[in-house]
Amino acid sequence: MTQAKPSYFYLNLLRCVATIAVIIIHVLGPMRELYGQIPVGEWLATVSYNSVTRWAVPVFMMITGALLLSDKRPFECDHYLSRRLMKVLIPFAAWTIIYSLIVGFGPDGWSSTSAVSTLAAANNTPAWYHLWFFYDFIPLYFVIPLLIPILKVMTAEQIKLLIATWLFMTSIFLLEVQTAITQDVVLYTGYLILGWYLHNRDNSQQLQYWVAAGLACMTINILGTWGIALQTGQYSGFFMDYKTINTVIIGGMIFVLGQHFAPRLEQRYATTVNTIGKYSLGIYLIHPILLIPVRQLDNGVYSWFGSDWLAIGLISIFTLVAALFITMLLAKIPLLQRILP
């Protein structure tokens, strides 16, 4: 979620749509577990939205790879740690504390015990569901400086082999083959390399293949998840993992579509897209607070809209606008600028 260079409008476009996709995933979260408890048509709404938005976090990682792995400036450790790493680490630490305090609030008021235990467990367990991202994203910042010189000396064919190897690993991860090398940091590093690779080449000739493969994977996600539910009687996230080949293909499709359509959209939508892109990390950090009453099913917020097909989309839009407005306001306060970059 690093800041894009002004000339890279398509990266801000990708940030914008990825931010929306993340909000959609979090809006539908509680509903996807209700298979057999709500009408199948409504449950399919949540599964369909979920299936076509799981690329969001991988695309954020691809954007980071596109920018940081393409940086041609000499590496300076102090600058990198203070300007790049701290830009992510400080918000993570601050919002872990904030969400730990929020956890303390319950029906009987605020409990310091709950808040402290949540904070104490934060070394391994995110204080809130969306903060998991930082546990996998921050280690990538230590990988990036090591990747840059390696990629510089590799030939085009060697890079293709590297990406092919990663694609194979994501395939066996989907098949749940246990190997020592299919670790999170390895599989997520692949997104950095893929983003860098696609960023530095013309992908127009391969666009139709990316779209065909990506749409096919989205369809498999929906039908596969529905099929598993019919067999087991419950929701399964088998096809929804961020580290599997189907998500990789969908993420690649979204990336090249962003490259393709950005020039056509820039003149008309540049202000909106760049604003959301600029505050994307703040929106990511803040929006779950707005969803607390929504995700409490007893409040019946989803039913206000008559259909989950409509509810998920509209709640996501309302949440995006509100989170953007709040982020822009808070970012004006000097004390908060470091935790809302």
TrEMBL record:
Topology with respect to the bilayer: Multi-pass membrane protein
One GO molecular-function entry: acyltransferase activity
Family: Belongs to the acyltransferase 3 family.
The EC number(s) this enzyme carries: 2.3.1.-
Sequence ranges assigned to domain Acyltransferase in this UniProt record: 10-327
Entry keyword Acyltransferase: yes
PANTHER family in UniProt: O-ACETYLTRANSFERASE WECH
Name of the protein described by the UniProt record: O-acetyltransferase WecH
Predominant cellular place of this UniProt entry's protein: membrane
Superkingdom of origin: Bacteria
Subcellular location: Cell membrane
Bilayer-crossing regions: 12-32, 52-69, 89-107, 127-147, 159-175, 181-198, 210-230, 242-258, 279-297, 309-331
One Pfam family named in its UniProt record: Acyl_transf_3
Entry keywords, A to Z: Acyltransferase, Cell membrane, Membrane, Transferase, Transmembrane, Transmembrane helix
Family annotation (InterPro entries): Acyl_transf_3_dom
Tagged with keyword Mitochondrion: no
